[in-house]
Structures are given as C-alpha cells and as structure tokens.
Design goal:
The complex is a heterodimer of chains A (about 170) and B (about 180). Chain A is built from 8 helices and no strands. Chain A has about 170 residues and is mainly alpha-helical. Chain A has one domain. Chain B has one domain. Classes of the chains: A mainly alpha (about 170), B mainly alpha (about 180). Chains A and B meet through helix 1, helix 2, helix 5, helix 6 and helix 7 of A and helix 1, helix 2, helix 5, helix 6 and helix 7 of B.
C-alpha cells in the first residue's frame, strides 16, 4: 500500500459517481442512509451499554485477564497480541459486543497501533457465526447443522491466523 | 458475563470496584455512541447511494454463474440460486437488512436430507453466510475515523484478504466433507 490515505477519498468519489451514473438522487439517498445509520446506532446503544458494563466489570475484577492469559499462548502462536483475545472470543457470538471491545482497544492503544488495526480487521472481516447460524437454521427448520459449524469456526481460526500474519 | 464478574467480585471481596466498573462501562457506551454518530451516519449515507444505484443487483448477476458451478445443487434446488446470489452480494456490501430476507428465502428453497438435516448445498450456504465476505468494512472504518486515525481506510486491504482466506477455507472444507459423505453413501 503505497499511500493508503487516498483510499477513502477515492472511495467516496467512486460511490458518488456510481450513484450519478445510475441517475439516482445522490443527495437524498445519502440522507436516507445517514438516517438509517443513526437509527442502527440508536438500536445498538442499549446492547453496547450492557456489554461494556459487563466487560468493564470483568476487566476490573480480573476475570478477563485470567481468561486472556489462558488464551494468550494460543494467540501469540498466531501472532496476535493479547488485547485481541477478548475480541477474537466474542466476535462469533455478538457483533455489537465485539465492536464495543474494538472501540475500547482503539482508545487504549490508538487506532493506528498494530493492536488497533488488528482489532478492526478481525472485527470487519468476520461474521457473528453463531448468531447467523442459529437464525438461518431456525428459518429452514433444521436442528443439526452437520459440519457447517465446525467448518465455519475453523475458517474463522484460519482467518485469525491470516490477520496475525498480514497486519 | 455479568454473573461471572459478580462472582469474581465476591471472591475478591471488591464490590466497590465492581460498582465503579459497571457505571464506567455504561458511560463508555454512551460516549462511544456519541463519538461514532457522525462517522456512522456518513457511511450509512454512502452505502445507501450504492444500494440505490443497484450495486447489489449488479453484483448478484455477476455471481450467478460461479455460484451455479460452486453449489452441489440437487434437482429442484436451482430455484434458490437468485436468492443465494442476492444474499451473498448484499452481505458483501454490508447490507444486512437486505441480505437476511434473501438468505432466509434461500434456506427455505434448499433441500434437507430425509432425516431433517441440511443437505450439502444448504451446508455450503450456511458456511458462506457464517464466513461472510465483506468488501467494505464500513463500520470498522467509521470507528477508526471516529478514534482519530489519519489512515482510517488502512484496514481495507488486509480485511479483504482475511475475509477471502476464511471464505476459501470454509468452501474448501465444505467440499471435502460433502465429497466424503457422498462416498459413504
């Protein structure tokens, strides 16, 4: 990446041009989406409140440290710093919980630190595996997922290793 | 999580610390939301432009051919193909709201085995959803921008590679298992 600071602005230009080519009202589309973004955030707030309270409790009481100390050897084998441990643990379970942990890592280590960037990659590149799985299987009315879950978790682990290697 | 924390507080006899931690967490959540609001709204707006320009439909059409080859469809299951493509492309663009209904429709169209367990095509679809490819991690970028990063989009490329790696792993493992259960009869 020669100069990644051009990525974001050019992305914005590209999106706007796409919209103009499709002959839509770019401005009102933007406003609608922005409103939706805010509403999503508002929906997330109560969950964030619960998760951050609980996770700060775990942090203060030392439970998180114990848990991460337990996981740290495995993660360091993958080249991941220990700040990532709670994120890696929570990501498959809850998107908003993992996101709030990413926010606290960004605050603690800085957004451009290795831990901060890793946190974003881990969070951005993966899905809430267990939630999605439960939702979809519920819709189809199947009870056992056969190999889908272990395969997904294995793919997640490989993704973690790739993140540790790349970032 | 709360219970585990409380139990630990009880063991340490440190309820005052626990109380302080609880409330600082709540405050953290609110200030996080406030700091996020601007960036979140901005990316929400950008994504909406993409959405209304029909990016998902275009991507979905592009996916149809490779997906037809990739999925081990049983006769009658091809009907799920448009939904599958729609779901995957919406997922890639981070449009969860559009992805889920299409995904659920696809799940209903895919077949189960006789004992009510998912067939191989359904398994693969499940895995692809659980590993979900993200083309543009807009939330993560928004977070970074809000945290004052001067290179907020720095993570786009690594995220893309990581998500592709885990998706490929998932697909490969699926093919492996699907082939195995077939040969067993």
């Amino acid at each position: 990446m020669a100069d990644s600071s051009v990525i974001l602005p050019s992305l914005v230009v590209l999106v706007v041009l796409t919209g103009m080519r499709a002959r839509i009202d770019v401005y009102s589309a933007f406003v609608r989406g922005a409103k939706e973004g805010l509403i999503t955030l508002l929906h997330m707030a109560p969950y964030l409140c619960a998760i951050l309270s609980a996770s700060s409790l775990l942090r203060e009481t030392g439970v998180l440290d114990a848990l991460c100390g337990f996981l740290a050897p495995v993660l360091s084998l993958l080249g991941l710093p220990r700040e990532i441990a709670p994120i890696a643990l929570l990501r498959p379970l809850s998107g908003s919980a993992a996101l709030s942990l990413v926010a606290s890592v960004l605050e603690a280590c800085g957004p451009d630190s290795r831990a901060g960037r890793l946190a974003c990659v881990v969070c951005g590149a993966n899905e809430t595996i267990l939630f999605t799985g439960a939702l979809y299987m519920g819709a189809a009315g199947v009870k056992s997922a056969r190999y889908a879950l272990p395969v997904s978790l294995a793919a997640y682990a490989v993704g973690l290793a790739a993140a540790g290697f790349l970032v | 999580m709360l219970l585990a924390g409380m139990a630990a507080a009880a063991v340490n006899g440190d309820f005052a610390g626990a109380q302080a931690a609880l409330f600082s967490g709540g405050g953290e959540a609110v200030s996080f939301c406030m700091s996020m609001a601007g960036a979140y709204a901005f990316f929400g707006g950008l994504m909406q432009i993409l959405r209304e320009s029909g990016a998902a439909e275009a991507l979905s059409r592009a996916l149809e051919r490779p997906m037809r080859r990739l999925f081990p469809f049983q006769p009658g299951e091809e009907a799920a193909l448009p939904e599958i493509c729609m779901n995957l492309s919406a997922d890639m663009l981070g449009m969860g709201g559009a992805a889920t209904p299409a995904g659920l429709a696809a799940m209903k169209a895919l077949r189960k085995t006789d004992d009510g367990r998912p067939g191989d095509a359904m398994e693969l679809f499940l895995v692809m959803n659980m590993c979900s490819v993200q083309l543009l991690p807009s939330t993560a970028i928004a977070l970074r921008a809000a945290a004052g990063s001067d290179r907020a989009a720095d993570i786009v490329l690594p995220t893309l590679i990581v998500t592709a790696v885990s998706m490929l792993t998932g697909i490969t493992l699926c093919r492996f298992f699907a082939g195995r259960s077939k040969s067993r009869g």
